[in-house]
Specification:
The chain is an alpha+beta fold and 186 residues long. Helices cover 13% and strands 31% of the residues. It is built from four helices and 13 strands. The strands form three sheets. It has a seven-stranded mixed barrel. The longest helix has 9 residues.
Length: 186
């Protein structure tokens, strides 16, 4: 049985934007390009595209080609008085049925009929989240009992195999071999 046959989740929304805006409009479908990211998205590229990172070092590899967010977080935020629609936190792919934050670095996500994204790390939420909705940042960033920072605003990845994604497509998970490394911010 292939990983795709054993899919554990679904894509609930796909989003992209050619400009560097906080939120991304939903689309009927997006195309992932191997080694680049989402076709036509402002964050696609071999090297970093996030403006603050480009200012520091434009030659850094782009480990943030695709942003994925669990739809379960959106439901939790709405229940806490922060209604947020898919794409509004800037994610490209909204999922359900997978605990994205629990995945180790290097996990392969099989998205739709053919695309594969390798998980590189956690999204590091910034103050723009509070500009979008006051008080939202504290809902997606907190502290663990040991004092460490807990980031909940999704995960980032790089495209290993391209393909087209649509809402309703399956998501399969292939964990990396060997010792698992927890996700860190990228």
């Amino acid at each position: 049985m292939s990983v795709r046959d054993g899919a554990t989740g679904r894509i609930t929304a796909v989003s992209s934007d050619s400009a560097h805006r906080f939120s991304k409009p939903n689309r009927a479908g997006i195309t992932l390009l191997a080694g680049l990211g989402v076709a036509g998205d402002a964050h696609a590229g071999v090297t970093v595209q996030h403006r603050s990172r480009v200012a520091r070092d434009p030659s850094q590899p782009n480990l943030r080609q695709v942003h994925l967010l669990a739809g379960e977080l959106l439901a939790e935020l709405a229940a806490a008085g922060h209604p947020v629609a898919p794409g509004e936190l800037g994610e490209n792919v909204t999922t359900c049925g997978i605990d994205l934050l629990a995945l180790p670095t290097g996990t392969l996500l099989w998205l739709g009929p053919e695309a594969v994204v390798e998980v590189t790390g956690l999204r590091n939420p910034c103050l723009q989240i509070d500009a979008f909705q006051e008080g939202l940042l504290r809902r997606v960033v907190g502290r663990a009992p040991d004092g460490s920072v807990v980031r909940r605003a999704g995960i980032m990845g790089v495209v290993r195999t391209g393909g087209t994604l649509r809402p309703g497509d399956p998501v399969g998970v292939e964990l990396p071999a060997g010792e698992h490394r927890p996700l860190e911010r990228v």
